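FOLDING PROBLEM:
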Amino acid sequence: QLPVFSSSFRWCSRQRRVFQWRQRRQCNRTVVVGASGASSSSPSEEEKDEEAKRLVFNPAAIYNEIFCDDKTFSKDVSRKIAKEVTELRPETYRNPEDSFYGEIDVNSMLELIDLGTDGKNLDGGLRYVDLGCGVGKQVATAALSGKFAKADGVEICPDLAAKAIEGIARLRENLEKYSDSSHACEISVSQGDVFDQDLSQFDFIFVHATTFHDTTVGMLKAKLSREMKVGARLAIVSKLCDDIVNFKPLQSIPGGIGWKPISQVDEKWQLDCYLYEKTKELD
């Protein structure tokens, strides 16, 4: 029976050593006790900084995480909201056509911003605004582009503006994970009428005007011509502004024609986007 006893003894000794090793490992862990008394492992500040540095800044991926993974931000839901507001509170919009909701693909919008800011001095801190920003997706794209120090959006529909504010709050929270200050951009969305805004403070103005009523477009052209500062850029979807005498097509666009096709969300066909620069003040 000696071999049996010897084998059992060796097995017990091994188990005791394993138990002691586990005890030492447990004691060596960093443990933080919270207010509730529960303990949990917690990374140090240095480890958090290292993790932030390892994160790859991908504007489209961040955008998709916020707006595409949550169906309440979908184009169909937003379009339904705008339609219901038009029917139940028709006084919200100047003209019913102004309420139609559309969206630009995030990658197409990033390309548009690259073209629209080409040749501009980014060190001065450019400022962007989306006139009629819906749920704020293009504002978020501008903030993620790295081209602007501040990105603003204005939306007249209270329901859409509320969703935009929610989305921008999520974006701010997401950007806190990145330690690189080059991604910092002040972001603001407000509910209001674009015709009450002072446009002289912006360097890049975006307007998705595809279904805007002719009256609205005429009023908007007059305001842009009067208030935009010299050198500021305009990107307007579907509406030519060649008749604004102190604007010229953006020369940095290949061919100098100030035109770029842009892709829509969940649509097969593209839209025309026209880019202009204000060249002078009117007498």
